[in-house]
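Researcher: Please predict.
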Amino acid sequence: MRMSGLTKLVNVSHGVRICCESLGKLTLQNSSRNVGQLLRIHQNTSPQVNMGALTFAARNFSTTHSRRDLMQFFDDPKNWPENEVKVGRAWKLDELRIKSNKELHQLWYILLKERNMLLTMEHECNEQMELFPSPERLDKVKISMKNLETVVRERNKAYHLLETGETGERPQRLMANSLGIRFMYRSLEHVLPPFMNVKWMKTRSLGYGGRAVRKFLLQYREKLYNEKRKAKNRSRNEVMMLLRRNPNLDVDLLRSKYPDVDIDKLKSSDKVRGHYIPKI
């Protein structure tokens, strides 16, 4: 039975090839529309082939509409003279988490195609000194792609933790560059291990020191501390104004939104009281 089925498949493939060769430059899409013509031609060339199998094979010829121009890299022409194009918001994490892996795969390529189109339109508008309509579309696409990548990384991490007990992410470690600024270094794969590639390690082992570097690090850390202090004061002032305008505001909601602010200590101070509340 297997040999007869294999012989029938070979005969069908040979018959389809003869039909395509006899029709000349007929495209796949046109051949699927002219199944009857294929059957008539094939009856004259190979009458031993099963007609039902040939009809089934001819239906598999249908393809999407082929476009051989570059207009897919450009936006719809009716949006070119517009100053604003109405679009939706970016994809959220909660919306992407409920989708399957196949849907995420398809959505990634849709967003990638949209990003390429927007980058092409932005470059062309800059070259023609025209206004790029709704430039926030590019930011929304980038945010959606970032959220999608985050969801995929979460699933990969959960899978590796379940199967191997490890996250599967590249190992990271805290390192310092030539100026002494610390950063998280993600390990990469190399052809040779470090102990065998001593020459390359010597060219990359740049130390830091000296009076100028110490002064730079002191000012750099002071700048980071000031930014952190200003952000904390800004959050405290926002909570203070919210409590002053809304004395019965939910405290748990404030704690979740402003985790760095001591709300209990702030409520006991006089700064959160309104002018209508007398001091005791």
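Model: Residues 29 and 64 are 8 Å apart (CA to CA).
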